[in-house]
Amino acid sequence: MLNVVRAGPIFRVMGMMDEHRCWEIIEAARADAGPAWADLDGRLQAALVRHLVTLSPAEVARFGEYFRALQHRGNRVDLFMAAFLIHHGCGDDSLGDFCAGLVGLGRDWYTRALRDPDALADHPAVRAVAAGQAGISVLLTEGFRYAPDRAPQKLTGEEYDGYYDTGRPILEQDGPGPGLLPRRLPGLAALFPRQQQYLREQYPQLTV
Q1: CB 12 within 8 A of CB 18
Q2: How many CB atoms lie within 10 A of CB 54?
Q3: For residues 16-46, b (16+ Cβ closer than 10 Å) or e, as one string?
Q4: Rounded distance, CA 147 to CA 69, Å?
Q5: pLDDT over 60 at 60, yes or no
Q6: How far is CA 151 from CA 23, 24, 50, 54, 140, in A?
Q7: Given 51, 78, 116, 159, which residue has the most CB atoms within 10 angstroms?
Q8: Using the 8-state DSSP alphabet, how is residue 76 labeled?
Q9: What does residue 174 show for φ and ψ, rounded to 5 degrees?
Q10: What is the helix (H) or strand (E) element at residue 10, kind and residue range?
């Protein structure tokens, strides 16, 4: 039986995949994807799949569980507001893609964004969107989001059915409680004033 110990909000599985190893793989894929913002999703997806196919199917499955847990941490109202401003609107699917995009920025920016979503106003990709130099969907990385499901298909030649999923819980905490809202994002609001007005009209309870 695997030895499972707590490691902050994520369980660590000794001798297999843990959060640190998960981030090592993500950071390597991010480096391989390069600095350009055009087609970031496609390049991140391809790079991550290349790294994952060097692992066993069980390791890929466990990576996927950590990967999804990292994304789930971003399923918060304040980060929804940030995604809404940057991407000119945001639905449930778009928020999931945005959370994957935050992971794809690397551990440093991911941590900064979860600590304070308004920190994204200083990210080069976000500033490029505001300046019209990058597409508004630059951080909506749907392909990257599902890359761990593609890797087992390449390893086995069969459609991934979740056979190797361990079923062990990873996530211990969700987003902030209602006491942290409404939340103001002055940096992002200054970059996207029209979207801030639209956000205020659509979700006044978040911006009062």
Answers
A1: yes
A2: 11
A3: bbbbebbbebbeebbeebeeebeebbebbbb
A4: 14
A5: yes
A6: 17, 17, 8, 9, 20
A7: 78
A8: S
A9: -105, -155
A10: strand 10-13
Tokens matching residue 133: 């130099």
Measure CA of the first residue to CA of the last residue in the chain; give whole Å. 52
Query: Which tokens go with 105?
Result: 């920025």
Q: Where are the domains of the chain?
A: 15-166+181-207
Q: At what angle do helices 92-104 and 40-52 cross, to 10 degrees?
A: 60
Element of type H or E holding 7: strand 4-7
Q: Tell me the three state secondary structure of residue 74.
A: coil
In this structure, is the dihedral angle defined by the CA atoms of residues 20, 95, 120 and 36, taken in order, positive or negative?
positive
Per-residue pLDDT averaged across 149-156, rounded?
Answer: 78
Q: Tokens for 164?
A: 């190797």
pTM of the shown model: 0.82
- E runs forming strands in 81-148: none
Q: Strand, coil or helix: what is 5?
A: strand
Yes or no: say if 88 and 136 are a contact pair by the CB < 8 Å rule: yes
Residues 134-149: tens digit of each pLDDT? 999 999 999 999 999 8
